[in-house]
């Protein structure tokens, strides 16, 4: 009943925001003047900027069709699902206090135990240009992760991120982050999180993230961006799922929010074991480099990352992984990608009738070295970690080529062809190659 009530309130707010698109203006009260904006969502703020309240969100409806390594038997499968269905509420109170709540009705963020929140945070902005944020949010790691899912170029972020999903992904927990800018060209952040994962004594896993960006050119159509990332967590005395798996750019093999490939969906297993006993591994570290350049309608970007899961038991070896991607995008209609210090932003069509058209190509590469024999591995319950021997070296390669149509500032339609290869990680039909197509309709407000 509670969930139904929340859903009703949420979608009522959504309907209000959409219906309000035709209304705009300023409302004067006995106190401070109120300014109402309806161009993108619904925002009400006092003219003195002491208080504000905004309702927004995004809806991403996907359809994909794929075969080969993307399925266990190699046969063709398809999926139709909501990739994201966010309702977002944010605002400011007493000028220096900000809040943000983002709930995912597609259940691809969060969990049933902790709530399907993409973010739920409070921030203090009184130490400008420094912001202190507390609550649930994704740790800062990587350029594509910093860029909103509304405005990343391809439908899915690069596959190399699958190697370090804990470093910037939706793992439940609470954290504190300090972030700030300097001289309009430097951005930095540091965060400490207590994850929803405990060691044998009940202590939560602690994670530390650092990110620094230098952008001497930092405006739309004129970008030079360089960044460095680091993340670490201590898995000593913790039983956890250490598997490194990848969808290789095809979310439909396994997702929520609708139909996926079900039991036939294949996520190649690159390393680690599902039930890794406490004391097997210790420090888990990842670092990354990021770079981007944009001139007018042309943009080029890439990232490189490494991860080392350090053995804490002499019977096992370290698990090592590295990955990268390189992407080039061009707006045929001449618009430049938006940019805010540390991340890319939306493309705003110059012609409201024809919209903006963008084409792109991205290559992802990921590699894992895991020489551990998981047949011999036993967890505390006496179960094998995974029923196979040494995994060895596995390489994943993904090609993405596609087109985006920004019909207006709210609607974006996308289509892409994805081709993947997983060397030394075939499916049940001995396929290492696979390809597929993905289409998305997005409404963001």
Please give a structural write-up.
The protein has a domain at 63-74 and 152-167 and 183-443: Porin. The chain has three helices and 23 strands. It has helices at residues 2-19, 143-146, 165-168, and strands at residues 25-27, 34-37, 42-46, 52-66, 77-93, 97-104, 117-127, 130-136, 173-182, 186-198, 204-219, 222-234, 244-245, 269-271, 281-295, 298-311, 319-331, 339-340, 343-344, 356-370, 392-406, 411-423, 433-444. The model is unreliable at 1-23 and 378-389 (pLDDT under 50).
SSE map:
Blueprint: H1 2-19, E1 25-27, E2 34-37, E3 42-46, E4 52-66, E5 77-93, E6 97-104, E7 117-127, E8 130-136, H2 143-146, H3 165-168, E9 173-182, E10 186-198, E11 204-219, E12 222-234, E13 244-245, E14 269-271, E15 281-295, E16 298-311, E17 319-331, E18 339-340, E19 343-344, E20 356-370, E21 392-406, E22 411-423, E23 433-444
Antiparallel strand pairs: 1-2, 2-3, 3-4, 4-5, 4-23, 5-6, 6-7, 7-8, 8-9, 9-10, 10-11, 11-12, 12-15, 13-14, 15-16, 16-17, 17-20, 18-19, 20-21, 21-22, 22-23
């Amino acid at each position: 009943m509670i969930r139904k009530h929340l859903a009703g309130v949420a979608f009522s707010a959504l309907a209000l925001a959409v219906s309000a698109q035709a209304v705009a203006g300023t409302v004067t009260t006995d106190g401070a003047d109120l300014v109402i904006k309806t161009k993108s969502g619904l925002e009400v703020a006092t003219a003195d900027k002491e208080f504000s309240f905004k309702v927004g969100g995004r809806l991403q409806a996907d359809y994909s069709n794929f075969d080969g390594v993307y399925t266990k038997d190699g046969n063709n499968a398809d999926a139709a699902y909501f990739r994201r269905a966010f309702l977002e509420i944010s605002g400011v109170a007493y000028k220096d206090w900000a809040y943000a709540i983002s709930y995912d009705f597609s259940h691809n963020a969060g969990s049933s135990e902790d709530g399907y929140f993409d973010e739920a945070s409070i921030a203090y902005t009184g130490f400008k240009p420094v912001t202190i944020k507390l609550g649930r949010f994704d740790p800062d790691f990587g350029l594509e992760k910093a860029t909103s899912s509304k405005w990343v170029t391809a439908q899915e972020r690069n596959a190399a991120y699958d190697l370090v999903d804990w470093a910037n992904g939706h793992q439940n927990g609470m954290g504190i982050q300090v972030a700030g800018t300097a001289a309009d060209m430097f951005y930095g952040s540091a965060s400490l999180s207590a994850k929803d994962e405990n060691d044998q004594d009940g202590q939560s896993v602690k994670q530390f993230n650092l990110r620094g960006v230098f952008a001497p050119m930092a405006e739309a159509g004129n970008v030079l961006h360089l960044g460095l990332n680091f993340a670490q967590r201590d898995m000593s005395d913790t039983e956890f799922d250490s598997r490194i798996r990848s969808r290789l750019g095809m979310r439909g093999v396994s997702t929520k929010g609708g139909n996926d490939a079900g039991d036939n969906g294949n996520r190649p297993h690159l390393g680690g074991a599902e039930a890794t006993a406490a004391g097997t591994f210790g420090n888990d570290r990842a670092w990354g480099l990021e770079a981007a350049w944009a001139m007018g309608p042309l943009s080029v970007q890439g990232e490189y990352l490494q991860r080392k899961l350090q053995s804490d038991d002499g019977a096992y070896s370290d698990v090592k992984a590295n990955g990268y991607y390189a992407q080039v995008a061009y707006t045929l209609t001449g618009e430049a990608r938006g940019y805010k210090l540390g991340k890319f932003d939306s493309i705003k069509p110059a012609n409201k009738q024809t919209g903006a058209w963008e084409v792109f190509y991205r290559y992802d590469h990921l590699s894992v070295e895991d020489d551990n024999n998981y047949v011999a591995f036993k967890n505390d319950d006496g179960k094998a970690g995974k029923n196979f021997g040494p995994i060895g070296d596995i390489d994943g390669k993904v090609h993405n080529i596609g087109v985006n149509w920004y019909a207006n500032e709210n609607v974006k339609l996308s289509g892409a062809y994805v081709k993947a290869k997983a060397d030394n990680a075939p499916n049940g039909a001995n396929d290492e190659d696979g390809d597929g197509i993905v289409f998305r309709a997005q409404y963001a407000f």
